[in-house]
Amino acid sequence: MQFDHTGSAAKPEIFIVKKIRPFALILVLSLFLCYPAKTYSDEYLTASGCSVSNVGYLTALAAEYERHTGMKVFVRGGGSVVGIEDLRSGKVDFAASCRSRDETDPKDIDFVQVAWDALAFIVHKSNPVENISLDDVRSIYAGKISDWKQLGGRPGPLKLFISRARSGLSGVEASTRQLVLNGREPAESPHMLFMASSGIVEQMVEETPEGFATSGITSARKRNVKILKVNGIAPTNKAIIQNRYPLKRPLYLLVPKSAKPEVKRFVAFTLSREGQRFIRSLNVISLMDVK
């Protein structure tokens, strides 16, 4: 299936549940925790996957699509690996991913690029550090930098939060290895803490003064964190588009080749000029922005 985009102490990621009334809670749990073997419905769509996409644009895009069409789209995060596994088992209609296809992914799923992102390095708002070099980031992941004084900050231990799926690589971890670590794995050390998704990683950095993490700029901008410059360049949309900021990466929707018509219509809306303009309005880099 091909698409045209020309335009013609960790709090879990579901922390919002405690604000939901009992009836709505039952609905959410029935949709996302107890999927039937197949979730083919003409009344709504379901999706899961990349937390960066979910926070950054997909939840808002789903609401915009419902406003235009009346079709509800229920989305949750969980990570790129979760999205792929949910698709594989038929729990969702489509998924989101912030990593490219690899050899282990099902062949009957299309990776459809819908936007652009960039890796970003985030710290607590109170951290005085403003800038970091890629060499210093590599040293953090190698366990060679474990105190903030080594980066010009206040003396104290550096806590590195990493998004790691139960199996396979999360979207952020895969991108970090490719774009930052030159294919190397992080050297596990006592200052590293592994979380189930990038959404949880971002929440941990929000709450941890000594925290450091890599995430996607698309969702990091919506968190209460400080985003560091890299080699003196801030990850603004303009710098990312012009490749002055070095860590650009694509964002995908994952769609079964046998997807039902309503999924195809949602993807077509996402790739349309109207859908891309809406994505841009969320301060996300659209396909139209990168020539």
Give an overview in words.
- 33% of the residues lie in helices and 22% in strands.
- With 291 residues, the protein is α/β, with parallel strands linked by helices.
- The chain has two domains: 15-117 and 250-289, Periplasmic binding protein-like II (D-Maltodextrin-Binding Protein, domain 2, 3-Layer(aba) Sandwich), CATH 3.40.190; 118-241, Periplasmic binding protein-like II (D-Maltodextrin-Binding Protein, domain 2), CATH 3.40.190.
- Strands 1, 2, 3, 4, 6, 7, 8, 9, 11 and 12 form a ten-stranded mixed sheet that branches. It has a two-stranded parallel ribbon with strand order 5-10.
- Helix 9 packs across helix 10 (273-281).
- The longest helix is centred in the first third of the chain and has 19 residues, at 51-69.
- The radius of gyration is 19 Å and the shape is globular.
- Residues 5-40 have low confidence and may be disordered.
Architecture blueprint of SSEs:
Elements: H1 22-32, E1 44-49, H2 51-69, E2 72-78, H3 80-88, E3 94-97, E4 109-123, E5 131-132, H4 134-141, E6 159-163, H5 171-179, E7 192-195, H6 198-207, E8 211-216, H7 217-220, E9 226-227, E10 229-230, H8 237-241, E11 248-256, H9 261-271, H10 273-281, E12 285-286
Parallel strand pairs: 1-2, 1-3, 5-10, 6-7, 6-8
Antiparallel strand pairs: 3-11, 4-8, 4-9, 4-11, 4-12
In short:
The chain has helices at residues 22-32, 51-69, 80-88, 134-141, 171-179, 198-207, 217-220, 237-241, 261-271, 273-281, and strands at residues 44-49, 72-78, 94-97, 109-123, 131-132, 159-163, 192-195, 211-216, 226-227, 229-230, 248-256, 285-286.
